[in-house]
Write a structure and sequence with these properties.
By secondary structure, this protein is an alpha/beta fold. It has a single domain, classed as 3-Layer(aba) Sandwich (Rossmann fold), CATH 3.40.50.360. The protein has a five-stranded parallel sheet with strand order 2-1-3-4-5, with helices on both faces. The protein is globular, with a radius of gyration of 16 Å.
Length: 188
């Protein structure tokens, strides 16, 4: 561990009306908050509204700064039609160097695949941006059946174990790459 916590940006990808994303995001951020070496920043794309961001605007600069200040990312994404939401792709494409040489993890949800097809496509997108995706994921197949009306997991053990494995990998990469960027700025 480091004597300084690292900044973990949790990106909530869904912007659809009636979305299930807040249930997943609330569960994950509550769990991540138990890890004292993390400083969690939730970037909800429903609030950011990436299609409305214009280069040079205060809103764009705020979004870019939050991504730039992150040492690692967790993308919470549903799977729509075997892929990830379009607003997420637009938000990713708005920036470039802010993603570079940083680790990205995934929490996905969806039908029987649990959103894993969306994750596989996102790995390609982040590779193009010189970000490092970690292998461990948290995946919720048929997520609506797994949570109660209060947003609590009915059986938290499997997801908690997966989240801890994801956060362990992210921590190693976040600290290692932060030190590397400080020693030698990344240039692609």
């Amino acid at each position: 561990m480091s004597e300084h916590p690292y900044r973990l940006a949790v990106i909530v990808a869904s912007t659809r009306e009636g979305r299930f994303a807040p249930v997943i995001a609330n569960w994950f951020t509550r769990h991540a908050a138990q890890h004292t070496h993390l400083d969690v920043d939730v970037i909800d794309l429903d609030a950011v509204r990436p299609y409305e961001l214009r280069h040079g605007s205060a809103e764009f600069e705020t979004f870019a700064k939050r991504v730039d200040e992150a040492d690692a990312f967790v993308v919470i994404t549903p799977e729509y039609n075997h892929s990830f939401p379009a607003p997420l792709k637009h938000a990713i494409d708005l920036l470039h160097h802010q993603w570079q040489a940083k680790p990205v993890g995934f929490v996905s949800y969806g039908g029987v695949s649990g959103g894993l097809r969306a994750v596989e496509q996102l790995r390609l997108v982040f590779a193009e941006l010189h970000a490092t995706t970690v292998r461990e994921t948290v995946s919720f197949a048929l997520a609506g059946n797994l949570f109660d009306d209060a947003g609590r997991l009915r059986d938290p053990a499997p997801a908690t174990q997966a989240a801890d494995a994801l956060l362990r990998q992210l921590t190693w990469w976040a600290l290692t790459l932060r030190e590397a960027r400080a020693a030698r700025p990344y240039g692609a």
